[in-house]
Design goal:
It is a single chain. The chain has about 300 residues and is of the alpha/beta class. The longest helix has 21 residues, at about 155-175. The chain has one domain: TIM Barrel (Alpha-Beta Barrel), CATH 3.20.20.20. The protein has an 8-stranded parallel β-sheet with strand order 6-5-4-3-2-1-8-7. It is built from 11 helices and 8 strands.
Length: about 300
């Protein structure tokens, strides 16, 4: 029987979809669109209706050159947005590495905290342990602060991802934060380097990363710089490339996909899973050989699992 390569099959339970709402003046794709609280709430409700399982509020941009935003400004931006969403029963994540903002988010009912620094401050661990929200522990080569443009070696980056999670997860659990609350994100785009290769390698090794740490994995390739470099497309035309990377990540068994376009990935996963459920597995004969695309997919799957 001709079997489909496992890496091309989306697991039966689809990833949870995290819809991005940037309450910022300078986010690279939608800065300024949702600075007004009513606009942010309206857009969040729309993403929820389109299929978002979680809404992530970002009160500050994190791309290279992003303006620095104080904790008081972050909380001001969040104040009139998070409360109506939580009151409506919509799970909310807050994307901030500032402890003051994280405390504010917890106090206002956030279900998730997403820290691009991966929660580096042991002084906050006791408070985190005393609460129930889940923690998205992100890796970045910068370790602190927003992304910067740095040239990195892909193999060294992958080794750094493994060391970072090994050390940080141990520290968080030693502080009393239960393993069931932790989610890992290897980081993509400028968080891994200024060229596409580190991001491509991180995506190709998602299955290995998940198996190594045995924790839920979140990824966010949506509109990232490495996709624009790979395709030569401008930001406004990067939707298909984002969707391709998201589908690939789903095939690798990720648990959360953080994205700007909820409807696209929801519909793509619906169609993909429907076709997968009804696929036929033909008998293999001497005249029934896999296509060149199939062969390349199998070879790619095998190489991505290599150490």
């Amino acid at each position: 029987m001709l079997q489909h390569p496992a890496s091309l099959l989306v697991p039966p339970n689809r990833p949870l979809l995290v819809g991005i709402v940037n309450i910022t003046a300078d986010s690279f794709s939608d800065g300024g669109r949702f600075l007004a609280a009513e606009d942010a709430v309206r857009y969040a409700r729309r993403l929820s209706a389109e299929g978002a399982d979680i809404i992530e509020l970002g009160p500050a941009a994190s791309h290279p050159g992003a303006e620095k935003v104080t904790a008081s400004e972050e909380t001001r931006r969040l104040a009139d947005v998070i409360d109506p969403l939580v009151a409506a029963g919509i799970p909310v994540s807050v994307d901030s590495f500032l402890p003051e903002t994280q405390r504010f988010a917890i106090a206002h009912g956030a279900s998730y905290l997403n820290d691009i620094q991966g929660f580096p401050d042991p002084g906050l661990y006791e408070e985190l342990a005393a609460n129930r929200c889940r923690l998205i522990v992100m890796h970045s080569v910068q370790r602190t602060g927003p992304a910067t443009k740095v040239l990195t070696d892909p193999s060294a980056v992958q080794g750094g991802i493994e060391r970072f999670f090994g050390e940080r997860l141990s520290a968080l659990q030693a502080a009393g934060i239960s393993r069931e609350r932790l989610i890992i994100d290897p980081g993509l785009g400028y968080f891994l380097g200024s060229t596409p290769e580190p991001s491509v390698m991180a995506l190709a090794r998602l299955r290995r990363t998940k198996a190594q740490f045995d924790l839920p994995v979140l990824v966010s390739p949506s509109r990232k710089s490495f996709l624009r470099t790979l395709t030569g497309r401008e930001l406004e035309h990067i939707g298909p490339a984002s969707l391709a990377a998201e589908l690939y990540a789903a095939c690798q068994g990720v648990d959360f996909i953080r994205t700007h376009n909820i409807a696209a990935i929801r519909d793509a996963l619906t169609v993909f899973n429907t076709l997968q459920a009804h696929r036929e597995v033909p008998s293999r004969t001497s005249e029934d050989r896999p296509s060149q695309w199939h062969l390349r997919a199998v070879e790619s799957s095998s190489s991505s699992e290599a150490p």
